[in-house]
Structure formats: C-alpha cells, structure tokens
Amino acid sequence: MGNRVHSLQADGFTGYPIVLSSDHSYIHKGLGFSLVGNSGSVAAAGTFVISFVTPSGKYVHLRPTSIGSTKNLGLFTIAEGSKMTGGTAATPLNRNRNSSNKSLVTVKTGATISAEGSIKLVELSIGSGGKPNTRSGGQNGENDEIVLLPGTAYSLKFSNIGETDSTVFYFSMFWYEEQEG
Predict the structure, then answer these.
(1) Per-residue pLDDT of the chain (181 residues; tens, 9 = 90+)
(2) Of 4, 12, 62, 124, which residue is least crowded by CB atoms under 10 Å?
(3) Residues 126, 76: Cα–Cα separation, whole Å
(4) How far, CA to CA in Å, does 142 sit from each of 21, 91, 145?
(5) Are 178 and 61 in contact (CB under 8 A)?
C-alpha cells in the first residue's frame, strides 16, 4: 500500500508533512465505503450470499476486513461472474461521514446463486467463537485486497460447514472506488 503527502500540507502542531495511505486518502475524498452486517441464522450446510455488482468505468478495490461466525466453522468465497437472483438491496456506508457521495456498487444481501462464477478469487475458512478449538481472530483485509473488474457480478458466499448447528456470520467489508485506468 502506498503513502503520499496529502496536498503538500503540514501538520498544524508538529509542522511535519501530512502523509496518508491510499485507503485513507480515498476515505477523505468520500470514495471509501463499507458494508457491515450479519447473515441472520444460517442452518448447518446452509449459505448466505451477498451479490456485489461493480459499476462500469470504475475500479473497485475490495477488502473483506472482518468475518466471524458465532457457532460453527464457515467457508467464505468470492466468485467472479456469478449469476444471482433475489436479495434485499443494501446501502453501503460512506466512510467519510461528511461526504454525500454514494457508492456506485449494487449490493444485495440474501441473494441466491443460480450459477456460481468459475473464477474463485477468495476461499478462506471462518473461525467460530462458539467452540474453543475453532476460535480464530479476524483479519484487516489489507493483504486480501482485490481490484475487481468493472461491470461485473461477484458472489460473496458464507457457507456454514458445521454438521448440526446453525450459526450467524458477522462481516465488515471495505472498498474504495476509483476511475478506471
């Protein structure tokens, strides 16, 4: 991740140049967004899907920053080019609360995959908070950043890989949107 001197400004207290990471700069510009929520109860061997469709003409940098499960182990996958139906429209949160910019990504939670994309960009296990031998910490997502194709549908799928118990998946996704190129 790169850093840059922010508008060649100096800190008012120290006089040192202000340096912001790329992510931080996009947040300041009102182009950084989050989706925070949970799946509700997912039965054993069940799934919860988020439909994530990128806009044409924008590069979307996606980071699954925090994912957890209340009871069972889970599997999280991101597949490119998935076909999905249904779901409930979700409104991404602008990380700069002073900005009126809206995300151009179309997000629906609780979607159904009719044809999963053949390219899996992410496949990772989700630890459980309910069983001591399966607990694991979250992640910050920085190392898992993916620059998504413009005008493309992605399925973000949470699978309950437990055998008998239902679970609830909690998630926080971060992305920023930049012009193509």
Answers:
(1) 455 544 557 767 777 777 767 777 888 899 999 999 999 999 999 999 999 999 999 999 998 878 889 988 999 999 999 999 999 999 999 999 999 999 999 999 999 999 999 999 999 888 876 555 544 444 555 677 899 999 999 999 999 998 889 999 999 999 999 976 5
(2) 12
(3) 7
(4) 12, 23, 6
(5) yes
What is the spatial order of strands in the sheet that 88-90 belongs to? 88-90, 106-109, 47-53, 153-160, 74-80, 119-126
SS3 assignment, position 142: helix
Q: Which two tokens stand for residue 22?
A: 């790329």
